[in-house]
Amino acid sequence: MPLFACAALLFLVGSLTNGCGPRLLPERPPDNYKVSIVEGPTLGMEDYWIYQRPDGSRIKLGAGNLLYHVEFPLWVGRVWRLPSTASLLRQPQGTRSIPVEIECFAAAFEPITLKAGEFEAFECRCQCMIAGAAGGYEPDCGRWTFWYAPRAKNIVSIITESTTGSAELIEYKVSESKVFQERTKPLTTPANAVTFYNRGNAYRRNQDYDRAIQNYNDAIRLNPAYASAFNNRGIAYVNKRDYDRAIEDYNEAIRINPNYARAFNNRGNAYRSKGDHDRAIEDHDEAIRIDPNYASAFNNRGNAYKLKQNYERAIKDYDQAIRSNPSYAYAFQGRGIAKFFQERPDAAVSDFSKAAELQPANLYHLLWLYLAEARAGHDGLANLQSLSQELDLGKWPGPVINFYLDKFNESALLAAAQNPDPKLRSEQICEANFYTAEANLLQNALTEALPLLRAAEKDCPPNFIESHAATAELKRLGY
Length: 479
Description:
By secondary structure, the chain is α+β, with helices and mostly antiparallel strands. It has a domain at 37-182. Helices cover 47% and strands 16% of the residues. It is elongated, with a radius of gyration of 25 Å.
């Protein structure tokens, strides 16, 4: 991230009086808005905030060092812009700079747990844009996310693209302000509702979806307007493959907060999992309208277009997802699969290689990289052996890699696909059929490949890439 006049490290330097402030916009939240809205805080002379950087160093801010780039009143869905400057690329400080514009977007109001405690905070995403800049300037002067907590009257966490400007609140002291409290509506959800919500998140991360749902139920019972709890309960239902129930929760989250981009994005994923790709695209469109830099929404819309076999349109979305997040491994994988079925295996190899570089332990990246290399006429087995030798191939889809490395035969692969969970067993068998079919196609064994492709097309869930891939292969082969 380049040095910005009035934005270097965003809030760790500067003062309120240097004349570089946000350009006020007259928007107000919609009439049916039910999430928090906060005015600017009233500060005391003794207020302070201590932050810790990733390298362990600390910095203390006083009341005269509040953020320039938070525009009040602040609410979920708020977009604001402010001017700054960007220097020439790789030039020393003081080199002639050009005007740029920083745009920020308040994406959510959710709990965040830090060393300084637990806060409810606005998640705000910012990016710096250069209009009409020549190629010698920084082409993209940075994206970052910060969390503003009303209780702390300041930003409590910031994560920059390079992490060098990142910081986390570890200690603070703020004076009580009756005026500030009165101008905040509503400031927080009930504390015990937040506790249930956070516990639900913990169970969900541990894949205990039933207990996660129980805790989200309690959070919603205590706070029926808790949009994030509805959204995250929807995610838990998706993991249980209960897509209709998930959609009901996303509907409620959107009703509570019509600018909830994540809920639109998640509902789109649920519709795609049901095979309703057009409804999925509509929801991803809306998520992108709310948050034009939402990498996940672009990626997921690309997935929907890919499943409709509109590869060119899918690739455009993957391109945008990667521009928004250059480390988005799944966008590289999705773009690689689209290119693979455009019969551009060499181009697909490049994307799968990048995905594997970003997520070296993801075995599906390695599988698709091998298939693309083999389809391109290269010997991909040595690369597959090298990339997988330190990984645990005992867990699915590791047995598929062992099959490709000729350590398993087809019978052993099907045996490895068995699982006590009937859903997992069905999904793993469908994947085994597809990847076995691909191995047969590489050997020009069409007679053996065709029934396996038809089985994968029939038995794989509609949101599985192997289902789509089987259909695409059958179409390519003229069946």
